[in-house]
Sequence to fold (726 residues):
Amino acid sequence: MLDYLYDETFEGLLTCVYHHYYTDRAAGIYPRDDYQPTMLNGFMEVETDQDKADRVYNAIGNKISNYALRLIYRAFLSGIQGKENVILNYILLGFRTGPSVGSLHAVKEVKELEDIARKVGIEQERMLQFVRFEVMETGEPGSPQILYAEVEPDHDVLELAAHHFAERFSHDPLIIHDTGRAKAVVAYEHNWYVTDFDGRHMPDGSELVISEDERNYQDLWRTYFDHIAIKERINPRCQRNHMPVRYWKHLTEVNLP
Amino acid sequence: MQKLQILADSAKYDVSCSSSGSSRAANGRMGNGHMAGICHSWSADGRCVSLLKVLFTNKCVYNCEYCVNRRTNDFPRASFEPDELARLTVEFYRRNYIEGLFLSSAVEVSPDYTAERILKCLELLRYEYGFAGYIHAKIIPGVSPEILHRIGLVADRLSVNIEMPSSKSLAAFAPQKNPKKIFAPMRQITNTLIETNSLKGPGTMFKGQNLNDSANYLGPSGLSGGGTGTTLPAVRGSAGRGLSGRKRGSFAAAGQTTQMIIGAGGESDASILATSENLYRTFKMKRVYYSAYIPVVDSPILPDKSTAPPLKREHRIYQADWLLRFYGFTVKELFRSGGENLDPDLDPKVTWALRNLDQFPIEVNRASYEQLMRIPGIGHTSAMRIIRQRRFAAVRFDDLKKMGVVIKRAKYFVLCCGRYYGDRSFAPETIRNSLLQMESGLQLSMFDDNWKRIEEGERREKLSAAGVI
Fold:
């Protein structure tokens, strides 16, 4: 029994699963950077291996289901501690039971994974709801306007939300910046990619400045937001239930200019 | 900015801001439709903000008693210019503030005059700005069929307000509107949806039936099976211009809805829901929305200004409405042997179950989907999960919770592998009491009872706020 340490990539995690079957049974899988060695188990740093990861990946798709694969990947994107072991347990059970593992909603291993995947799904939806773009310019005359948004999701859901925005605003270049993880989705004309990103500097070094009309439209939006509420029905608890306060930091309508 | 304040203030009593039911690929220059709908924000009253909900104008020639925009109400007035509103919508949309536009209007000059300006705005938005997001347009009764048809071609959803649950209150509170004028556009919308083969109907009420059949065609009397009324060519020249991929002739893809006010007239819950059921069965509407009456204007024939809006009643009616559309209930069943109103303390499904205790408890391992759906605490998702899991293994009581069943309600009404898990006695009163005890904690959290009498001065200030600031 070994604790496997991985580099926090999906391939790394799958490589650990490979080693569970071909090297030694895993006591647990942990991120390499903040691992506390215990007296109980030895540990091994697993080197990510694309071939081994591919074999596990394909095996999950073939022997369990593509649905399971999607669920596992979603769970992997979560920021929850201990997600690796939940994923490991699910995969082990999945290889034992086959495709039907997807309908065993009451089994502990399945429920734990589904719960994590659901949380990620919820946050993905929250991204679609709560991303607020500011229209920016690079300052050069004639350059296109850029939609820029800052977010701080609990789970790493940028890539799950990217397709939606790339499709919806295909005619505007856009950047969604995850400030906590220092990365961003960059999208234009139906294409998108995820990249490291540290601030408002474009790859070519130019700086983003807020466009002329932006403040104006933000004020209009705030005005609208304040006036659409019916005073007789004020219900802050209901509001917060739907729109948790941790998202408010980046919401135009609830912040003062 | 003042304009937006005034017209948002005037529009906020309109319910419905759903943006679901129509999915559109990004074929314009901007935007697409998301099938499930997206709420972008929640205002302080806890209602979601999905669409930019404004009136095109609040200058009204009508004088409906309940309405904040009635002619005799001294209140700041404003109108949008078509281009101004189109531009505002687009700019809000690209900042991801909204899913689309909900455009309603007071009646300025005449229904046709107002509708034409609305149409101009919407066509600008669709064809000039290439906006492919969601548009919900309110149809004013009395508008000509040609204009209605063209609005339908650019909108995702159309709605005609029925305003009041009975023609009696309509005559009393909105003398310039009459049922005939309201039903005419509703009928036209349903008929056009049948012609374009896109009538979907409410919830799962007509599951498995083909609604787009000439038998459902509504004759002039409002009943099904009549002759073909006056119809319009399905495709017009202007449709499709600018939006190359937009399906030509696609008409109100997200269907038709309506709304009515609760608690202004003296109707009982039973008659309100009977009206809704009628609307669902006749016009196959997607939804009926209800809004608790909020006294915004002085009127001798309406509830006093200090009356709290009947929020709980609205809530129960919505729950019952859901039972009609998704759970296979009929109004007759809900009110059989038991008064004209819903029980304010318990949800309508529980009330129904308590009145029909002879049908319970139901064994979850053997019940059909329809039976499962009638158990309090079980909905579509959990019913499907039960059915899926019991193919592999019997569903045990402990499994139910993990499958999303609301145990504290369901346990009184189910058997699991032949065993009953509720309290000792299986009697309506015992169950009712234990449910009430449990709910008393829950209900409070849904409705903060913070309605307080708003002083006259404060109310004035609120009404004129839009103009002052």
The first helix of chain A runs from residue 10 to 22. Helices of chain A lie at 10-22, 50-64, 66-76, 83-97, 108-130, 158-168, 214-228, 236-242.
